[in-house]
């Protein structure tokens, strides 16, 4: 509770610094989400701490302000469009709540908002109605400390010991301790992924943060490879599934052709419309479950799929799905 009071008093101080015309207790209390009597106590705390505050009445309304000429902080100047962009960025990481990536962004925006003139601050709050982003499908609230350790280890170039649950046969997972040199944390597909060199294999691999049970730093330090780039490493990945790039080709029927022309599913995509309205798509990507799932989701619209092993994997998914559906229908039709 003491930490909450301190944070609120810092926000109140920021309001007093930027609003030279003064701050009305009722309006400030509403803006800071507290009660009027609590705010008066905060004013007294700031006075006791040595900040030169003064109060005066404008009719029935009291206004508190900084003594003229006092300034201890450089004020930030942002345009409304910049503030809307920041609000949108915060919403993009809303699915990472509980981690420093989300909570730090929210805290920084609150500090920025507290330094704004009242008119711009009001527009800033209203901008939440103008832009939005879907919340992530993962829950990182229980992994905030783990994510912090990973980020700190990346920054300090510090090797970590991590217990990681990799996928085994038929989707089973088994926990194993791994020694990792963490290079980079990637936000993608509503989740967090660690790019790290695994000491056991000697290769740089992609690890889903959700599957870490524990992370602890060691005394060992590492040096990242010269010119290391996450973008370069992931250039052929599909759905964060990395591996050796393969040439992929498939055709999409006219009914879904516009979807492929409007949006690239991968940076390497080259799409060419045919005379019959269909689209031929070429990619250079790693073959893996995300690519198979994407192509399976296009259903009967996909044809001429290459290479053969990818075509076989997609056919297998369709057949297994059909068999499962038929089995469930038989059970549903069978008498009790």
What attributes characterize this protein structure?
5-stranded antiparallel β-sheet; 336 residues; SH3 type barrels; alpha+beta; single chain; 4 domains; 11 helices; elongated; 4-stranded antiparallel β-sheet
Account of the 3D structure:
The protein has eleven helices and eleven strands. The protein has 336 residues and is α+β, with helices and mostly antiparallel strands. It has four domains: 2-66, Arc Repressor Mutant, subunit A (Orthogonal Bundle); 80-129, no CATH class; 142-233, SH3 type barrels; 245-327, Alpha-Beta Plaits. It has a five-stranded antiparallel β-sheet with strand order 6-5-4-3-7, with helices on one face. The chain has a four-stranded antiparallel β-sheet with strand order 9-10-8-11, with helices on one face. The chain has a two-stranded antiparallel sheet with strand order 1-2. Strand 1 (53-58) and strand 2 (61-66) form a beta hairpin. The radius of gyration is 28 Å and the shape is elongated. The mean pLDDT is 83.
Rg, please?
28 Å
Q: Count the DSSP helices.
A: 11
The largest sheet has its strands arranged as 6-5-4-3-7
Helix/strand order:
HHHEEHHHHEEEEEHEHEEHEH
Summary of the model, kept short:
With 336 residues, the protein is α+β, with helices and mostly antiparallel strands.
Topology, please?
Elements: H1 2-18, H2 25-32, H3 36-48, E1 53-58, E2 61-66, H4 80-92, H5 100-114, H6 118-126, H7 144-156, E3 158-167, E4 173-188, E5 191-198, E6 204-208, E7 212-221, H8 230-233, E8 245-252, H9 254-262, E9 270-273, E10 279-286, H10 289-297, E11 302-306, H11 308-333
Antiparallel strand pairs: 1-2, 3-4, 3-7, 4-5, 5-6, 8-10, 8-11, 9-10
Helix pairs in contact: 1-3, 2-3, 10-11
């Amino acid at each position: 509770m003491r930490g909450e009071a301190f944070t609120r008093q810092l926000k109140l101080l920021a309001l007093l610094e930027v609003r030279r015309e003064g701050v009305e207790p009722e309006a400030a209390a509403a803006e800071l989400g507290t009660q009027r009597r609590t705010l008066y106590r905060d004013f007294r705390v700031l006075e006791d701490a040595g900040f030169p505050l003064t109060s005066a009445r404008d009719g029935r309304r009291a206004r508190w302000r900084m003594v003229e000429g006092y300034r201890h902080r450089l004020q930030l100047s942002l345009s409304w469009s910049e503030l809307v962009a920041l609000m949108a960025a915060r919403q993009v990481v809303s699915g990472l709540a509980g981690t420093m990536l989300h909570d730090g962004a929210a805290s920084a925006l609150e500090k920025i908002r507290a330094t704004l003139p009242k008119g711009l601050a009001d527009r800033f709050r209203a901008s939440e109605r103008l832009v939005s982003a879907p919340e992530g499908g993962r829950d990182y609230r229980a992994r905030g400390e783990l994510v912090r350790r990973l980020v700190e280890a990346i920054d300090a170039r510090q090797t970590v010991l991590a217990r990681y649950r990799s996928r085994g046969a038929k989707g089973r997972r088994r926990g194993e301790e791994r020694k990792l040199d963490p290079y980079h944390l990637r936000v993608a597909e509503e989740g967090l992924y660690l790019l790290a060199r695994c000491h056991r294999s000697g290769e740089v691999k992609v690890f889903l943060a959700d599957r870490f049970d524990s992370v602890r730093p060691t005394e060992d330090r590492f040096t990242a490879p010269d010119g290391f780039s996450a973008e370069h490493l992931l250039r052929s990945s599909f759905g964060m599934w990395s591996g050796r790039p393969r040439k992929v080709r498939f055709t999409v029927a006219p009914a879904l052709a516009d979807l492929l022309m409007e949006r690239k599913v991968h940076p390497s995509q080259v799409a060419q419309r045919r005379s019959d309205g269909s689209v031929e798509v070429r990619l250079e990507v790693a073959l893996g479950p995300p690519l198979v799932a994407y192509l399976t989701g296009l259903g009967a619209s996909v044809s001429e799929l290459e290479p053969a092993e990818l075509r076989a994997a997609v056919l297998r998914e369709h057949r297994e799905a059909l068999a499962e559906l038929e089995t469930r229908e038989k059970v549903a039709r069978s008498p009790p």
